[in-house]
């Protein structure tokens, strides 16, 4: 029963993480064409709840998958579950190394209502960093799903 609950939580948290990252990927094309005023206006209003919900679902996915890795040691689904954890940790690393610094710069400029000359560099770093996170989050979700399928009896 404990495994089923943890898998349920891990899948829900991982799916929510992928959903948030997919939103960023789908926005990427149009946002590349926006001028600085529109870009900063959207960045300063649209993502307030992302900052609240994002860390909860990211950490929830990672913690629940860590618990699964510990419990599933020795089972056929262990390697896929461990690979899912590695993928989500890679996404977190990309966020910390690429997205977070860009986010810090953008937040400073939003607060001061000034647009620096290199704003497109930081926009690109933020946008493409989120796309990189999406690749690893989606991979982690698919690996987690495959781990459940591997343990499911059937033909």
Structural overview:
By secondary structure, this protein is an all-alpha fold. It has one domain. Helix content is 87%, strand content 0%. It is built from five helices and no strands. It has helices at residues 2-33, 36-46, 48-71, 78-112, 119-151. The radius of gyration is 18 Å and the shape is elongated. The two termini are 23 Å apart. 28% of the residues are buried. The mean pLDDT is 93.
Keywords:
single chain, 155 residues, mainly alpha
User: Could you tell me the radius of gyration in angstroms?
Assistant: 18 Å
- Give the amount of beta strand, in percent: under 5%
Order of helices and strands: HHHHH
First-to-last CA distance = 23 Å
What's the main sheet like?
none
Count of helical stretches:
5
What's the mean pLDDT score? 93
- The number of distinct β-strands equals 0
* Count of discrete structural domains: 1
> Based on CA inertia axes, which overall geometry fits?
elongated
Low-confidence stretches: none
Structural class: mainly alpha
Helix content: over 70%
Could you outline the blueprint of secondary structure elements for this entry?
Layout (H helix, E strand, L loop, with lengths): L1 H32 L2 H11 L1 H24 L6 H35 L6 H33 L4
Helix pairs in contact: 1-3, 1-5, 2-4, 3-4, 4-5
What does this entry show, briefly?
The protein has about 160 residues and is an all-alpha fold.
